[in-house]
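Q: What residues go here?
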């Protein structure tokens, strides 16, 4: 385990950034007395290797990766989107790149819920499953619910399921910054945000399945 200061120095970030990661449940930690110690699993975490795109460009990138064509983009923007996509498909750090590009897609909330209510929450039609809960993630996370919910429905779900805010919760709900279809790119970005090897591996697999070059080779 590492102290907050040691982890910050190791990763080249500020202590405030480490505390922010703890609050958003992005790295595992343990409270010992009055101190917070970073668990060894967090050593796999690394700072984002890409800057976040504007919401408009992030959604356009997701649309492009999933095979769509946007008429709203200017030619220069279309070229940038294609460059972002090429970088993703060619990079060994595609999950981390995607996490950075798509950072503004939604606001993330972490809650705790009774294990008896997890199945009912997962089936709630107001929730669009994503991340580790999405079938295409191929992950069996029966003890966690992750998905997207509209802003107007969030307080209703909190009340109905007695959700409690928790740093290390078993319910991850994201409120999209703008109404958008939750497709493979959103699922891959959510998996990447866990910053854990298994989830990032599945994120890369999903991205690989969207790569036109690989699709061509598979059918060639």
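A:
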């Amino acid at each position: 385990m590492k102290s907050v200061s040691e982890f910050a120095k190791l990763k080249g970030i500020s202590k405030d950034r480490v505390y922010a990661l703890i609050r958003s449940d992005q790295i595992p930690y343990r409270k010992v007395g009055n101190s917070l110690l970073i668990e060894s699993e967090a050593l796999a975490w690394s700072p984002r290797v890409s800057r976040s795109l504007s919401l408009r460009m992030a959604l356009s990138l997701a649309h492009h990766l999933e095979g769509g064509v946007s008429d709203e983009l200017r030619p220069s923007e279309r070229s940038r989107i294609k460059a972002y996509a090429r970088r993703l498909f060619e990079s060994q750090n595609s999950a981390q790149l995607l996490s950075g590009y798509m950072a503004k897609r939604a606001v993330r909330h972490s809650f705790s819920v009774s294990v008896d209510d997890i199945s009912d929450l997962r089936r709630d039609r107001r929730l669009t499953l994503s991340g580790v809960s999405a079938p295409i993630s191929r992950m069996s996370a029966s003890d966690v619910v992750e998905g997207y919910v509209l802003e107007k429905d969030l307080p209703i779900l909190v009340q109905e399921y007695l959700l409690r805010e928790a740093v290390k919760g078993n319910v991850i709900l994201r409120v999209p910054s703008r109404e958008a279809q939750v497709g493979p790119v959103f699922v891959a970005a959510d998996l990447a945000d866990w910053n854990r090897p298994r989830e990032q591996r599945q994120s890369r697999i999903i991205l690989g399945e969207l790569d036109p070059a690989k699709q061509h080779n598979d059918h060639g």
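A: Context that may help when evaluating the design: The first strand starts at residue 2 and ends at 3. The beta strands are 2-3, 29-32, 35-38, 106-112, 128-129, 145-148, 164-165, 171-176.
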